[in-house]
Amino acid sequence: LQRLALAADADERAIRRAYARELKLIDQERDLDGFQELRAAYEAALFWVRHPEAFADADPAPAGAPAAAAPTVKAAPPADDADAHPAPPAADAATPVDHAALPPFDPLPHATALPQAEDPIALGNAVFDEFCLRLPQLAEATGVPIESDAPWQRALQESLVDLRLFGIDARQQFELRVAILLAERWRPGHEALLVAAVEVFDWAADRRRVQRLGQAGALLDLAIDERALFDAQSDDDANHQRQLLQRLRVTDMPPTWRELALHAHTLEMMIARFPHWLAMVADVDTIVHWRRLNEAMPGWRRALALLGQKRAASQYKSPARSGYSWRWGWAVLVLILFMLRTLSHLGNDHSTGGPAAVPDGAAVLQEAEKNVAAGNYSAALTSLDLLIARQPNNAEAYALRAYAHHSDGKPQLADQDLERAAMLAPASATMLRSRTLIAIERKQLQNALTSARRAVQIEPDFYPGQLLLARVLIKMKQDTEALQQLEAMATAHPDQPLTYMAMFGIHDRQGDHDQAMAALNRGVAAAPDAILYLNRALQRSRGDRAGRERDFDSSLALTADPLTVLRERARWELADGRPDAAAATYGAAITHASGTDELPMLMAQRGVAYARAGKSPLADADIATARSSSAAASQQNDIAWLLATHGVALPTALELAQQALSKEPASAIYLDTSGFILLQLGREAEAVRQLDAALALRPDLANSLFVRGVARQRLGLHAAGKADLQSARAAEPGIDAEYAAYGVQPAPSSRRAL
User: Fold this and answer.
1) What is the pLDDT, as a whole number, of residue 304?
2) In 3D, which of 175, 44, 165 has the Cα closest to residue 105?
3) Among 7, 10, 362, 722, which lies 20 to 30 A Cα-Cα from 257?
4) What distance in Å separates the CA atoms of residue 444 and residue 631, rounded to the nearest whole number?
5) Could you give the CA distance from residue 750 to residue 725 in angstroms, rounded to a whole number?
6) Is the whole model's pTM more than 0.70, yes or no?
7) What 8-state DSSP symbol labels residue 578?
8) Segments of the chain scoring below 70 in pLDDT
9) Cα 492 from Cα 456, distance rounded (Å)
């Protein structure tokens, strides 16, 4: 207390302020002894104020010294910051204290035994070892969220007041061991320990301190910067990455194919941006395992894993709105994704005019192709740039880089690379397939058809090239020729399920149920596959319950990712009037979705099933869980739409829609959802205002036009309502039936007028 110029009733806040004041007066680099003395006084004072019971039997203080009685810990009064140097304690404030006349400073009362003269390194290690014994219990108590660091802070602070860490060297050894523990490898709870250690040791504010911790300190210094970069992201990106981090910490449950497909790009991006921090907050072995599984995933399996993936808000059309029409869209998605495997057909490209890639070039091409397929264009372009610098005549590298540039929104660079590839190897099937894919996405279908046909002529037996040609014909709606092409493929490659899926897609789009079913039956017989069984289950007539059950069972037996199959089965069971069965199936899906971003929607869907079954308490619990666990705006909007279209928990649906809007107020889709819910709640005027805002952003949004038309009718604005309904029906035929399923219908006169 004398060293800090404090009175005997000083509290912890006063001690900290005094320490900060005195610290500014010391040059820590040149006056190490003075710093250690000050630090020892500070630590002793903190111990004195935190542990008054240790001083209960202390010897009376010498005359003239501050009383050593146990302090009364109380809230500190507001301090006057202008008073940087309070007067030392004295009986008479006007009389200065003669410090030389006071007895020597004893940091602790004689009744408190200090450790014997021991090696401070050994003391620091001993306290650290005892701290480590508490780690499993702390990890189990706090769970995995990054934010749950409070118990770890308390544990660190309790260790730091241990008398064995009284000396500065012992304390620094303890701090060093904590740093090494964090830098070595992740263990359960380390994500919280890292946050706690940065706070307790003040590493973020005092970077010199962390840099003095050797190699571990250097890694921590980088990790602190990377964590700041992580926190600077948008809320949606950060929340999505937090969910992935939590999943990566589940080391005893291998990822599903769907998880790999959905999170591959995010994981690679995090490795690139936050490598040191990521290694401290997630299991590196698990990350390596995920990457190897993702690299080994076949293209068709990746496409299957993406079945049922939610669309981006800009392309939003709720699954509830579209029924089972996603099946054709999925067939198209499969074809597009599978085409990415055709770009660098290494070892079988009969190109001329350019030298073959050397083995290391082939490896670079394969890695770049994987990055393109995962959407990681910057990584693909970086590796291809280096390869082309080493091998300036590698036609395949130019062809693949052309597609990467196109996908990255750089059309001029894409065209330049295509021209260079064509000049080097005019008969390169790889170049032609890249040109085909780019032409498809630019809607230059005749150019795409020419390139695809030429590629098949060069490599007539290459199945992905044949499939690409079929894809172009399907896009051009040349269904007869597309079916002929697919028949030839089925003869040459009868074991490829994508052939039959493409056949099914054509017939399903044409509305030919019998032919669509025949294509699926043929595929199941020749190439049994989970996606064929699933689509056949959904294609069966409503009365064929037993057939659907068998197909769902077969699909589940074949798929590595049962989540999609279970979700579709539950939807069918709910539509079939069996809410209890649907709730049970959703429960199985929830088990498979643990730790993924699919969980909130599945909880909401089970809540709807419980509500339909009349089990209100269970429904309320699931919906509350879904609401509390949905953080991203898109999740909140999807759940709000689900509840609204089923007429369940409408007030909760409105709150979720408004939360989504608060994050993205310029989203026409979220405004549309909010307007629909307000209509369902009978608040037509508010609904019109929301839908006006949606249509100002997207004038052609048929759903908003339809709902605004109904709302205007109910408000007595019949002419305006009729105009909205006519525009909606012109943009989307069949929209009346869609909204009738949700319990929303226009006035009868408007339907007669149509």
Assistant:
1) 54
2) 44
3) 362
4) 40
5) 8
6) no
7) -
8) 24, 27-30, 32, 54, 56-118, 141-149, 298-360, 749-754
9) 14
